[in-house]
Amino acid sequence: MEALLLRVPEAAARLGVSRAKLYELIASGALPAVKIDGCRRVRTDDLRAYVEGLAPSQ
Fold it and tell me: InterPro entries, per this entry (predicted)?
């Protein structure tokens, strides 16, 4: 069963970006995140929606 929430390093690894870049995406509002007891988590559905919303490069 797939986890519903991912830690920042896990979400960054799935996207193939650094932790710093993932925090930038969260801070800019491009990728929603939730906070649980002071720890950021990214919902897997939000991660998928972010990727699906990316425009292909030309």
Answer: DNA-bd_dom_put_sf, HTH_17, SinI_DNA-bd
